[in-house]
Every structure is written in C-alpha cells, then in structure tokens.
Amino acid sequence: MSGAITPADGAAYWLRWQVFACGALIVLPTAAAAALLPRLRRAAAPLRATDLWVPCWARLHPGWLLGYRAFALTAAVALLVRLLVTHGFSVFYFYTQWTFLLVTIYFAFATAISAHGCWVYSKKSLRKADESHGFLNVDVENRDISTPISGESKKDETIKMVSYYEQIVNEKRAGFWGRCMQIIYQTSAGATMLTDVTFWGLLVPLFYRDKFGLAMVSDGMHSLNAVFLIVDTILNNMPFPWYRMAFFVFWSCTYVTFQWLLHACGGISWWPYPFLDLSSSGAPLWYLGMAIAHIPCFFLYWLIVKAKHTHFPRMFPHAYARTS
C-alpha cells in the first residue's frame, strides 16, 4: 500500500502505538516464564542420565535409538546444507529454519549422548543380566518378569543386557549437557508444532495459496521436522515436564526480537510473515493470537507423549516399558 508506514520511515514507524502494544506481548510472557520457571523446576522429578539414551521398548538395544538419531541428524544436516547452498543465509529470516536448525541441534546432542551411553552400557558389569530376558523387560511399578530365561542359549543372548530396573534407584542424574538436550528437545517439540500448524493452517490457506502455492515446502521442512521428532519420541524414554514450555516462549520471543532488531537496523525491508508487520492497526491482535497459540501447540505435543504413556502399555503390555 503506497501510503503505509514502513520500517524505512524510521521513528514514525517505531513510535506507533502498535509497536508498544506488541512489545508488551513479547516482554510480559517472557518475564512470566522467567519468574515461574525456577519455582516449577524445583518441584519436578530429576532427570536420570539413562533417560537420555535408553529406549522405552523392552528388548530394544540402545544402539537402535542411536542409529535412528544418527540417521535423523544426517538427513536434517543434508536438508539444511541444500537450503543454504540454494538460498544462502537469508533462509534464517524465517522461523521455520530457526526451528529446523534447533531440531538438528537436538539430534546432534542426542546422537552424541546416545553414543556415549552405548559405550558406557557396553562397559558395565553384566552379572545380573540373566535375571530377565532382554532389556527393560518389566514394568517399573510392579517389576513383573513375565519371560523367564531358560537354557544356556538364552543366557548367552542376554549376557550383554543390563537389569535396568534393579539399578534405577542408584542411577545418577543427568549432567549439564543432558539437561540441555532435554530443554532443546522440548523447545523443538513446541516450535515444530507451532511452525507446522501455523504454516498449514494459516499461511497456506490465507496468505500463500495464490502467490507461493506449496512450492515453499518442497524441501519438506514443514513436515519432516515433526516426523523426525515424533519417531524419536516413540522410541525414547525422556520425560516431558510441562513447565519447560518456558523455553519455548523464550525461543519464539528471541526470534521476534531478532526480526525487530533486523528491521530497526535496516537489515531487511520486508516481513517474513505477514502477521509480524507492525504497520497494521490489527497487529496487536495478531501478536496476541500467536502468543496464545503457543499454549495449545506445546500441549499438543505433550498430549502425544501422554498418549504414548497411556495407550502403549495397554497395546503392547510385554514390549513397552515406561520408566519415567
């Protein structure tokens, strides 16, 4: 629109009331998350080191989870490299690429920690391995061993398996890098849901339908990000405490702040997403809507994890073993 005020107009743009209203919608959630996080974190159960690399499936060797994470990391890096070669670093103007980079970082952490866990696992004393057939064979609440071991051949098969539930009380807590991995995991989960729901539910139908069509997602990022994480969730044994939604809020607020600084410094003259534009009188409503959308998007993934813990034990009583 020819009469519209743009960031290039300088102070006239940044002193509009919409800017202050939208700024409040960024600062207030960030401040609330920062204030509540320490209190909620103290009440949560500690994260165990083995939660990071032990699968939640009985008889499934940790090497399978390591293999999947290495595959996902390789595929994610290949997609990012392809995108950077084709479009350059300007792709990181978009929240989608921020999120996909975060997912890639998660799989880098997860692969490294799984590799270390498998190495530690292979070095452990296995004197109690013949007490159960396979890895994670019982439910943690009742410790019901339903498949006894008989014969030397079965003892040989399980000689490299550890009786996890016998050691769980003495299991050490996750260290700094392990906690970072879980934070990145949960932040990626929320950001992925927000990215995909916003793109497929809002941008494609309302903004990109005629101008861009579906060519913008030919690289698959708006689908593969969720696929990579959900498959990892199905395999892993990591808890998903709801209070870490705070880091998801920090992540999104950091992205919006980055966009504001980029426009204020004249680094870019267009908004990657139409609802970020501050020139419209309806901008605060868009910002409020996107702020509220963080809640259902994060809890959508939380429900996926909850459904896993609720339904899988019923569907696979002898194969699924929840320990967190």
UniProtKB/TrEMBL annotation:
Heme listed as a keyword: no
- Membrane-crossing residue ranges in chain numbering: 17-38, 70-94, 100-121, 247-273, 285-305
Sorted keywords for this record are: Membrane, Transmembrane, Transmembrane helix
Superkingdom in the source lineage:
Eukaryota
Q: Is Membrane a UniProt keyword of this protein?
A: yes
GO CC, alphabetical: membrane
Q: Enumerate the PANTHER family for this protein.
A: OS02G0130600 PROTEIN-RELATED, PROTEIN ROLLING PROTEIN
Name of the protein in question: Uncharacterized protein
Q: What gene name does this entry carry?
A: ga28930
